[in-house]
Structures are given as structure tokens and as C-alpha cells.
Specification:
With 279 residues, this protein is α/β, with parallel strands linked by helices. Helices cover 43% and strands 14% of the residues. Bound molecules: NADP nicotinamide-adenine-dinucleotide phosphate. Residues 141, 164-167, 169-171, 188-192, 195, 208-211, 229-232, 238, 258-259, 262 line the site of NADP nicotinamide-adenine-dinucleotide phosphate.
Length: 279
């Protein structure tokens, strides 16, 4: 079987193309879809992500607002800022860039986001809706993973999917989405024993570990589908690409895999939120 490199840029372009008509329509009725990003502190990686999201909005004729708060910001002040954005009718999506400084109660801040503007599925209500299989805005990276599998017509029903990572924004929601799509799902984490043995049984592997080049080709079953959601310093994923490429039936590269689809999905959710609030 021919090995497939799963190209995220093509999928992201298709998502962006599908949004143009509705953005034009919303603008014609005086609504400019607007994403507000909230960045606390000066983490350089977060700065880059926020800038990328703002630029992506501009390219699609959407608006973005960037709220920058100092690293000394307290939880109450951050929540107040989020509430102001909730009450601002010109803002349709709110993204609080993770991670926030450790003295802040990040969960409390996420929970302050109005569910109608929770375009990255970070509230407990948004996560619950994803897990139950309804709701408009699953977390963007999990949704991007499902989208690339759909685009390349990779069967999920009845397959064994192994997700490595259980974070609230990635590992857990993607496990729920795969389960809803009738995969048999195993979710692994830092306390999992015998990870390579579990991965040997996987038809689909999702790497969401936050450790560069962590997943090794020798751990995989021949022909498995490898989705690398990781993004680490130096543009490397959580998968050891060279060794996994040899064994995989299909694999996402980093960069150019899940990352661009995640951003396109965030914009799509923002446009959908603007539609929901105005049409
Ligand atoms: P995170 O919150 O740090 O979670 C990492 C997960 O990996 C945890 O559940 C942890 O287990 C698990 N883990 C750590 N070491 C492990 C080990 N040795 N064996 C098995 N599991 C292990 O990270 P995250 O926010 O989910 O992000 C994960 C990756 O995705 C990062 O590379 C991040 O940059 C990337 N990411 C990419 C995008 C994108 O747009 N492409 C978006 C978001 C995140 P415990 O729960 O037991 O600690």
C-alpha cells in the first residue's frame, strides 16, 4: 500500500475556502466576525501562536482583538477582562491562550468564558457537549484531528485508536470524539505501563504528549495511521517522524499537519459563533 503523508495545509485551505461566502454575507449585514485572544504574560511561544491567529483572521477579512495582560495579573482581574469580552457584542469568539502564569486559576478563567463564545471548547460545558456528541465547538486541535481523518477517508469505525495524552484541551476531547465515531479508544498518560505494547495494537495513534520526538517507530504496528498533534520548540512534533514514517501507513508532518487545521478550525468556529449571534 502506498504511504500517505497527510497534508494539513490542503485541509486548512478547504476549511478557509468554505468560510468565504458566509464571511462576505455577515459583512454585508454589518457583522465582522471577531476573535478576541487573551494573553497573560510574555511566553514567547504563546506570543507567536497569538500572532499567527491574528494574522489568519486578517487574511480572511475577519477581525481580531488582542488583549495583553501583564504576568502579575491576578485571577479576578483576568476573569473581569473575560466578562467584558463576554458582554462586548462585537466579539464572537474568546480564546484564552494556555498556559497562563501558575499563580492564576486557569480553570476558573476558562469557566468565565460565555459558552456561546467558547470557540476552543475549554469550558466544562463545552467539553461536556463534545463528550455527549453535540455542541458546536469542540476544542480546535481535536476537531482538526477528526477533520484530517475525514478528509483522507481514513476509517475510524471499529478501529483501535490509542491517544497518548489526557489533557483537557487535547487528549481527553479527542478520545471522546474518536469514541463517538465508533473507535475503540485507549487513552494513555504518564502513569501508563507498557506504552509500546499498547501502541503495537493501535490502528490509529494520536500523539499529544508535549515531548519532542517521543513516539518511536519500533512501538508501532505496521501500516498504522499516525497523527502528530505535538508542537515543540524547533518545529518538531511528539512523534519521531523518521522512524515512524518507515512503519506508518499514513502520517502527519510537523509543521504542515495538525497545526494549520487547528487555526482554520478556530476561525471557522468564530464565524459560526458570529452567525449564531446575528442570524
Ligand atoms: P499537556 O497538557 O502537557 O499534556 C500532556 C499529556 O501527555 C499529559 O496527559 C501527560 O500525562 C502525558 N504524558 C506526559 N509524559 C508522558 C509519557 N512519558 N507517557 C505517556 N504520556 C505522557 O499537553 P497538551 O496541551 O495536551 O499538548 C500536547 C502536545 O500538543 C504539545 O506538544 C503541544 O504543543 C501540542 N499542541 C498542539 C496544538 C496544535 O495546534 N497543533 C494545540 C495544542 C497543543 P499526565 O496527564 O499523566 O501528566
Amino acid at each position: 500500500m502506498e504511504k500517505i503523508i497527510l497534508d494539513g495545509n490542503i485541509v486548512a485551505q478547504e476549511i478557509r475556502d468554505s468560510m468565504k461566502e458566509i464571511i462576505d454575507f455577515l459583512r454585508s449585514i454589518g457583522v465582522i466576525p471577531c476573535l478576541a485572544t487573551v494573553l497573560v504574560g510574555d511566553n514567547p511561544a504563546s506570543e507567536t501562536y497569538v500572532k499567527m491567529k491574528g494574522n489568519a483572521c486578517k487574511r480572511l477579512n475577519m477581525k481580531s482583538i488582542r488583549v495583553q495582560l501583564s504576568k502579575e495579573t491576578e485571577t479576578a482581574e483576568l476573569i473581569e477582562t473575560i466578562k467584558e469580552l463576554n458582554n462586548d457584542n462585537s466579539v464572537h469568539g474568546i480564546l484564552l491562550q494556555h498556559p497562563v502564569p501558575s499563580h492564576i486559576d486557569e480553570r476558573a478563567a476558562f469557566e468565565a468564558i460565555d459558552i456561546r463564545k467558547d470557540v476552543d471548547g475549554v469550558t466544562s460545558a463545552g467539553y461536556g457537549q463534545t463528550a455527549f456528541g453535540f455542541g458546536d465547538f469542540p476544542s480546535c486541535t481535536p476537531a482538526a484531528i477528526m477533520k484530517i481523518l475525514e478528509y483522507y477517508q481514513i476509517p475510524i469505525d471499529g478501529m483501535h485508536a490509542v491517544v497518548v495524552g489526557r489533557s483537557p484541551i487535547l487528549g481527553k476531547p479527542v478520545s471522546a470524539l474518536l469514541l463517538n465515531a465508533n473507535a475503540t479508544v485507549t487513552t494513555c498518560h504518564s502513569r501508563t505501563s507498557n506504552l509500546p505494547d499498547i501502541l503495537k495494537q493501535a490502528d490509529i495513534v494520536v500523539a499529544a504528549v508535549g515531548k519532542p520526538k517521543f513516539i518511536q517507530g519500533s512501538w508501532l504496528k505496521q501500516g498504522s495511521i499516525v497523527i502528530d498533534a505535538g508542537y515543540n520548540k524547533g518545529n518538531v512534533g511528539d512523534v519521531d517522524y523518521d522512524s515512524c514514517f518507515e512503519v506508518a501507513g499514513a502520517i502527519t508532518p510537523v509543521p504542515g499537519g495538525i497545526g494549520p487545521i487547528t487555526i482554520a478550525t478556530l476561525l471557522k468556529h468564530t464565524v459560526k459563533a458570529a452567525e449564531g449571534m446575528n442570524i
